[in-house]
Design brief:
Shape: flat
Structural class: mainly alpha
Number of helices: 3
Strand content: 5-15%
Radius of gyration: 16 Å
Largest sheet: 2 strands, antiparallel
């Protein structure tokens, strides 16, 4: 997988999300073309979307931040 991608772990497989640098037009183009040409990828992302949304909700994000702050203050 190119370095312009990062992963979000889900209950099934990692969900690859394109995050190319703004100045890398070729990487962005490749990511968009892959999304539109890969029906299986689109279907998997659609199926995993509700769980991914829960993982990134405001409540989940606040819990992650609170855990991070607790860990930082323990040291």
């Amino acid at each position: 997988m190119p370095s312009s991608f990062w992963t979000i772990s889900t209950a099934t497989e990692p969900c690859w999300i394109a995050t190319p640098p703004p100045e890398d037009e070729d990487a962005f183009t490749d990511a968009v073309l892959r999304f539109f040409s890969d029906a299986a990828l689109r279907e998997r992302l659609q199926a995993e979307a509700p769980e991914t949304a829960r993982d990134w909700s405001d409540v989940a994000s606040a819990k992650h931040m609170a855990a991070l702050y607790r860990a930082m203050t323990r040291d």
